[in-house]
Amino acid sequence: MASPERRLSRGIVARYAVGSIGTGGFATLPGLVLVFYLTDTLGVTALLAGLVVTAAKVWDVLIDPWIGDRSDHSLAVSGTRRTWMRIGALALPIAFVLTFAAPAGLGPVVAGAWVMVAFLATASAFSLFQVPYIALPAELTDDYDARTRLLTWRVVVLSFAILLFGAGGPMLRRAGGDDEPLGYLVMAVVAGLVIGIGMLVATTTAPTGRVVEPRERRSLAAGYAEGLDALRRSRPFRLLLSGFLLQGLATGVMLAGANYVAVWVLRSEDALTFLFVALIGPAILCAPLWGRLARRIGKERAYVLASLAFAVASAALVGMIWAPGAWVYAPVAIAGAAYAGMQSLPMAMLPDVVAHDARTDGPGRAGTFGGVWTAGETTGMALGATLLTVVLATTGYLESVGSAVVAQPEAAVTGIALSFSLLPAVLVLVSLVPLLRYPLRRADIDTPAPTEEIAR
């Protein structure tokens, strides 16, 4: 009889991984350029820019658990999660283009409102895809190592997408020359199409099966309550999500700050491309290595090692306050190698958590877990951008409109550097507190659990 890992064909692994082109694009471009677009093209103040980004993310946090519950209901009714994924994949490119298409002549407040509404729609479409997408690994295979393989290749493609959008996005933005709004629009159209295509490919991996008796249709509040119940009853889920959320906060503040570091610390817009190449190149190469290490020592131990390496590398970047230069690409490369493990390993651990919960409390809740997970991930990334805007406002960062040139105060430049180095290092170190208490091991997944103690 074929093992579960053999039954997970290369085609499924490849098509599932392609979905991360959409995930990587949506996570990278808004986090990288949206705040900068608001402050340095539309003239929106740093705090208002942070509010725009945070408002859409807060909405995501509210609807993700409900989308997860609806995805579980859709699976019961139709036998697949594919429908909601397709709706999100088709709607996202349109809303993404509108986000970077604020009409000329709008004042900063009205322009900020335009971007907030459009970005809220973009984030909603993304959640319709992402929540069931996150739920699929628990249903595609029940093998501990096969899940690591599936999520490892997902992160390889995710890393490639981050490099593609992180380096290519700013290049497309410069296609408008001195017309910055046109450059952002070109970037949004191209990126939106690529994101949508990647998502549509991934929808084909959603299993189709027997339609079962559906659960009663529930309200937003009831779906949210189901997500809170998953957090309450599953201790492994609480610990894993807590660590991942803190790390999302760390990577979110770094991502939002990268453009500012290139312009105001390294004094070169081209440095943004080099930063992404230095970060993501090693991530692409090292993601399979983290998978191999996880098979030898366990996912949870490998995850802790990756987190420690990332924290040390980030802390080393604090030296750019006094000596900015090309040397920063070396610790960024180390952080990139560690980042691959920080992405692939927790994602491979999540379906283990879902499977463990299914044995102890019954199956059929993968969508709910995916919804809460996506809400937590969204919270971390959103608060990372918000945290950066707080640092910018506190240190006196000066906004500008279009191609206007300003001179930033020394305190603002120092704040940008700290947001890219010491701050994320501390956040990742704090994330180790819950991660070191994560209880599930290979034996808990590959063999039936004799009691429910671990889940409690």
How do you describe this structure in short?
The protein has helices at residues 4-7, 10-40, 46-78, 82-99, 108-135, 137-140, 144-173, 180-203, 220-233, 235-265, 270-297, 299-316, 329-361, 366-394, 410-419, 422-435, 442-446.
Note down, in words, how this protein is organized.
The protein is globular. The longest helix is centred in the first third of the chain and has 33 residues. It folds into two domains: 199 residues, Growth Hormone, Chain: A (Up-down Bundle); 228 residues, MFS general substrate transporter like domains (Growth Hormone, Chain: A). The chain has 456 residues and is an all-alpha fold. The N terminus and C terminus are likely disordered. It contains 17 helices and no strands.
